[in-house]
Design goal:
The structure holds two protein chains of two kinds.
Chain A: E1 4-13, E2 16-26, E3 31-35, H1 42-49, E4 57-62, E5 65-66, H2 69-72, E6 75-78, H3 90-100, H4 106-116, H5 129-141, E7 147-151, H6 159-172, E8 178-183, H7 186-189, E9 195-200, E10 203-209, H8 210-217, H9 221-229
Parallel strand pairs in A: 3-8, 3-9, 6-7, 7-8
Antiparallel strand pairs in A: 1-2, 1-4, 4-5, 9-10
Chain B: H1 2-41, H2 44-80, H3 85-88, H4 95-125, H5 128-170, H6 177-206, H7 208-215, H8 229-259
The chains are: A alpha/beta, B mainly alpha.
């Protein structure tokens, strides 16, 4: 059974079709890149999968069941912006994740915090945006989820931080789990991808294993993307 | 999970509101103290200080009620439709439970604020003379004043539930969501007020004694006079109406939220 399946998902806002009849299948144990230009529909698709938007038509299934509390217990989502209450302390966010997610490993979160030299009693409002995003990444990757969905985790950060983020993802995602990673910075994640999804103008234009795409196009995923979208 | 959701909702609202409630009690105590000093010294200076302290206590009480309401509404909008909704809606809980927790927490916080304001008012105003008047009034019409207080509390809670539904309706559209939330809240509140006034009017025409009472010379009305049964019944109708409206609005808001959200 597929881990995640989107069947003919369409989303319109005020008669503007943002996603058009998108279908995709994610198998367990794969790292999948959701690639597309800015405004292609990546975030909309991710928001639909995470129940933050309601599809205009079509359905989204996780392990064969519609998205709901059971699926959310197994999906660990990192949005592209900070989403925690800035009035909380770091320790409070860890307690909150422990309270709500049975698969959350607080010890692992504290270990990862040590690397960042973040103090537990620090308020989020006193932290920089970058530090808050790293904290969120730690919280999300400290779950033993079946599917990690990371929306633009590399957006707007310096190359050193990108490396930190990629290392954190690769070293901490649960064995056998899948990762859906959205970005337009293809070169930075190309090396870790098993599958790629190309999305453009709200349509899924390509779904392929990364190696097959490289062999077919005779170059990297990044080059294939540039050729396809004439960048 | 409902308990956990409520705990975090309560903490989020309480950490601001608690300071306002403390301010209510401190200002009330200060007003009482200045009144006691004035009664002892009887000087113009202490009269002015006493009046200022009482006025300040009243302003802080009104401020606390509004702050609680706005804090609850803002917290609801922020965590259900704002950036923090990304956490709320990805929690492994039913969306109905999210709504239940927020409404229950909001109603509890409103109730807590009203209790604190009531306690503050008692501290400021229940001096020797007024205490005797209240005791006399309570003896003759205690049940009526209790009913009136319950009706007032239900009215405030009904407005809070209007705001929840107003926010849900405002965010079902794609533009001007905050503005539309306010508009929907006010429209809902006016519709409810009109419906309740209509219900009272029906009762008014069906019961001649109330008409007689309303036409009577209200100048002779005394706080410690026993209340006519008909007036009590008007409050019962209002209280029942508000309770019914709270239930109806709550279920409509819950149903709409459970159907799905579209967060920015």
């Amino acid at each position: 059974m597929a881990l995640l399946e989107c069947r003919n998902v369409t989303k319109t806002f005020q008669n503007v079709t943002v996603l058009d009849n998108v279908s995709l299948t994610l198998e367990p144990g794969r790292i999948v890149g959701l690639l597309g230009r800015n405004g292609a529909g990546k975030t909309t698709l991710i928001k639909l999968i995470n129940d933050l938007l309601t599809p205009t038509s079509g359905e989204i299934l996780f392990e064969g069941k519609p998205i709901g509390p059971e699926s959310k217990a197994h999906i660990s989502f990192l949005p592209e912006h900070t989403y925690l209450d800035p009035g909380m302390k770091v320790r409070g966010t860890i307690k909150m994740f422990s309270d709500f997610y049975a698969d959350f490993n607080a010890d692992k979160a504290y270990e990862l915090l040590l690397d960042l030299q973040l103090k537990e009693d620090m308020y989020l409002s006193k932290m920089s945006k970058g530090m808050q995003e790293k904290l969120q990444l730690i919280l999300v990757m400290s779950r033993a989820a079946k599917l990690y969905i990371l929306d633009e985790p590399l957006g707007g950060v310096d190359p050193a931080t990108r490396d930190y983020i990629m290392d954190t993802i690769l070293n901490n995602f649960c064995e056998g789990a899948s990762v859906l990673l959205s970005t337009h910075l293809i070169a930075d994640i190309e090396r870790i991808l098993d599958d790629v999804l190309f999305i453009d103008n709200g349509r899924m234009v390509l779904q392929s294993p990364a190696d097959e795409l490289r062999a077919r196009e005779g170059g990297s995923v990044d080059q294939a993307f540039r050729r396809m979208f004439k960048c | 999970m409902l308990k956990k959701l409520m705990k975090y909702d309560f903490v989020r609202v309480e950490k601001v509101v608690v300071w306002a409630l403390l301010a209510v009690l401190v200002c009330a105590a200060a007003a009482r103290l200045t009144n006691a000093i004035y009664n002892e010294k009887m000087t113009m200076l202490w009269l002015i200080v006493d009046k200022i302290a009482s006025a300040l206590a009243i302003v802080v009480m009104i401020f606390a009620v509004f702050l609680t309401f706005f804090r609850i509404a803002a917290s609801f909008a922020r965590t259900v439709y704002g950036k923090q909704s990304y956490f709320t809606h990805t929690l492994p809980v039913k969306r109905g439970a999210v709504y239940d927790a927020k409404v229950l927490c909001g109603l509890a916080m409103n109730l807590l604020t009203l209790l604190a304001v009531g306690a503050g008012a008692a501290i400021v105003f229940l001096t020797g003379d007024t205490m005797a008047l209240v005791k006399a009034a309570w003896k003759d019409s205690g049940a009526f004043y209790l009913l009136a207080a319950v009706t007032f509390v239900l009215e405030v809670l009904c407005f809070a539930v209007c705001a929840y539904l107003g926010i849900v309706l405002g965010h079902m559209l794609n533009t001007h969501k905050i503005f539309l939330s306010v508009v929907f809240t006010l429209v809902l509140w006016n519709v409810i007020s009109t419906v309740l006034i209509g219900a009272e009017a029906v009762f008014y025409f069906a019961n001649g004694n109330i008409a007689d009472f309303l036409r009577a010379d209200t100048a002779s009305f005394a706080m410690d006079a026993p209340m006519p049964q008909e007036v009590k019944t008007v409050f019962v109708v209002a209280a029942a109406g508000y309770a019914l409206m709270i239930s109806v609005l709550y279920f409509i808001g819950r149903r709409l939220l459970v159907k799905g959200v579209n967060v920015d």
